[in-house]
Design a protein that fits this description.
InterPro entries: DUF4835. Pfam families: DUF4835. Keywords: Signal. This is DUF4835 family protein. The chain is of the alpha+beta class and 303 residues long. It has 2 domains: 184 residues, no CATH class; 89 residues. It has 11 helices and 4 strands, in the order αβαβββααααααααα. Strands 1-2-3-4 form a 4-stranded mixed beta sheet, with helices on one face. It is elongated.
């Protein structure tokens, strides 16, 4: 009996250590009418937490300390009737920096095109070969989450290994190609607004934008990961990555991933270069005020 218990514990340990995500999901329904039983959103939150953290998303082996920390916030905006809800999804993921306790923002994005059907206790299922499922509105829940999971894993892999994320961007692209379709479903097509899931993954799979991947790798491996070894060299590595992004932005202005890359990153960059040598500080200010226009006022204080 003890031997069987030990084997079971070892198998559980191996399986849990292999999982890729350490995710937290929250479902907020404060805007929904009091006539709706809010307990269903607690049930949904628990089911999606299990879906994200129990599913094996890759064939890679992740040790427990390597699991990617990420947060998914679903904000229910409207009860559309028929167990259909309109919501927004905020996704955040972080990457640890070598030799420190600091975690850098890898992804920070809000997706406002999220409509789905949920009946309490319905199965939460996802099949890569049948993304649309039998009910597109039901399938849109897991299609959205699977899309962003693959995006997160792709970015994480890119940040540790040159072009390491390609296979996961392709999986996200496959989800877009087979995405649920319906009158109320949007965000999967090129014409669904200026910022959508189609455009984002296109930026990460189109060979015209290969510099994105090179810059992301350099930003971390020759940049932030070197901070505990050589701060000047680390800043030089980040500047090289920003220079690559400027070159890309010059040839392909206003790409969606360029905006996503800088989302939630201004404080990190300001702090990094606030202690830089004058020439590095000047270069950083010039690059960042051109690349991250939204946070220009922050970077102008780099003097």
């Amino acid at each position: 009996m003890k031997k069987l218990l030990l084997i079971a514990l070892l198998l559980w340990s191996t399986a849990s250590g292999a999982q890729e995500l350490q995710s937290k999901i929250s479902v907020m329904a404060g805007r929904v009418s009091t006539q709706v039983d809010k307990r269903i959103f607690n049930t949904l939150q628990g089911a999606l937490t299990n879906f994200l953290n129990s599913r094996k998303w890759t064939q890679l082996t992740y040790q427990p300390q390597e699991r990617i920390k990420c947060n998914f916030l679903i904000t229910i905006d409207q009860d559309m009737g028929g167990n259909v809800f309109k919501a927004s999804l905020t996704v955040q993921a972080a990457r640890p920096i070598y030799g420190s306790t600091y975690e850098s923002p890898l992804l920070n994005i809000q997706d406002n095109d999220f409509v789905f059907r949920y009946i309490e206790f319905q199965p939460i299922e996802f099949n890569e070969n049948r993304v649309q499922g039998t009910d597109p509105l039901v399938a849109n829940i897991t299609a959205m989450l699977a899309y962003y999971v693959n995006l997160i894993i792709g970015l994480d892999q890119d940040s540790f290994s040159p072009r390491g994320g390609d296979a996961f961007y392709q999986r996200a692209q496959n989800i877009v190609n087979s995405a649920p379709e319906g009158r109320d479903i949007s965000g999967w097509k090129a014409f669904d607004g200026v910022r959508n899931r189609f455009r984002l993954i296109q930026n990460l799979t189109d060979t015209r934008f290969n510099l994105f991947h090179d810059a992301l790798y350099a930003y971390y491996r020759t940049g932030f990961d070197q901070l505990t070894v050589d701060e000047d060299a680390a800043r030089a590595g980040v500047l090289a990555a920003l220079t690559s992004l400027e070159s890309l932005n010059r040839d392909n202005p206003a790409t969606m991933y360029m905006q996503v890359f800088f989302q939630g990153r201004s404080n990190e960059l300001f702090k990094l270069f606030s202690k830089a040598k004058p020439e590095q500080k000047t270069k950083a200010r010039e690059l960042l005020t051109r690349l991250d226009v939204t946070n220009t006022s922050t970077y102008k204080d780099l003097r």
